[in-house]
């Protein structure tokens, strides 16, 4: 397939295509296989967080079987938080749902959701962990849902590119099965994660000052639990502003008069 | 996954499991990847027709990530006709349906059919062609149906083990017969509304004292907007307690020392 080196024209320019995010991938071969799978199923935006062996890597291109465009245009990040900052929703694929209170979706349900987002111009991220280590719990807590591929529990070690393959296959089925007529919801769009994380940081700073995180060794899990609950709310940008106002009001408002109240 | 070397017990001894047949595979690595995928999705009978580099091949075991049993028990044949002689139905997967008069099925339809066979004690074969050459027309003519994976026509070169992965994923979905719940079973129930309204009242009282609801005529709609966002989060009872603690901490905690902090 040496002839396939540049991206083919978009089949559905009306859709905001999901991106694939690989967190700390170890093998360049797997990154190349992921690029090939992305080309098979019509995706092109590849984001790589802290690749073990650096970037670019020749072996990725060699394994892509000519699907060079996701690799040529791949963007590199230091953290998952940075890689997902501009996205509206992120699905973390993991074989073992952790002890989080995030909803667990099948690959098919993930495709349904991603497609609904894509029709509304919202960008979805499909996040996959490192080959052996998987995803950090703290990174999963940044996501909206967990996607679990229904492997045999007796042998759940799925190759990274095979996991991507299945999630993207369901995406393509959804694209093919759905007529183009979009019905747009009246609901406002969820805020970009960067705004949401601003709210989290604000809240957590104030709670820290208030001595809420006690005992200190529980701070991380307490923070995660707060974030997970707020993630589920899918706050809009306006709501994020409102909730920042709530935090400010609770912290500073006591004793103030209405006249001194600064507008939110 | 070094510990996984022998087949786990059958999950569904009532089903006659399909077998996977690889026709003239070239790369031992791909055979190993196929074994891993078979283990992921609960299949174990692997048949190999005329492997290019002979058999056995160490690289297949190395790539199987511990899924040794399909390789250890693989059977080798000279022709497709011999490999399928004992089967009741065979599905040939190919990206490009040829000029045959065979019905073309999706992977999902193939799983439906294979499952119906499996319940009746009939053995289905899932046949995949060589990496580049694909299947011979004369071998396809021995089959009952063609399975086509819905790849982007602009880049239809699917890796052999990825093709197997998708067909077997659909098989497993069928076995699991997945109307999956959106939330995990072990996820806690959303809190009773009375608890939730206690949180709302607590928050709103404090915001009232802080002068947050300004101008006063907007209080009702501001309250409603806060409640709507929190409703979407579907907080559990534990989370309601946590968030009441958050409100208390923000209001009262400022300036307190950790020692004085009341437990939440």
TrEMBL record, chains A, B:
It comes from Asticcacaulis excentricus (strain ATCC 15261 / DSM 4724 / KCTC 12464 / NCIMB 9791 / VKM B-1370 / CB 48). This is tRNA (cytidine/uridine-2'-O-)-methyltransferase TrmJ. Its EC number is 2.1.1.200. It catalyses: cytidine(32) in tRNA + S-adenosyl-L-methionine = 2'-O-methylcytidine(32) in tRNA + S-adenosyl-L-homocysteine + H(+); uridine(32) in tRNA + S-adenosyl-L-methionine = 2'-O-methyluridine(32) in tRNA + S-adenosyl-L-homocysteine + H(+). The keyword Transmembrane helix does not apply. It comes from the Bacteria. Its main location: cytoplasm. It is found in: Cytoplasm.
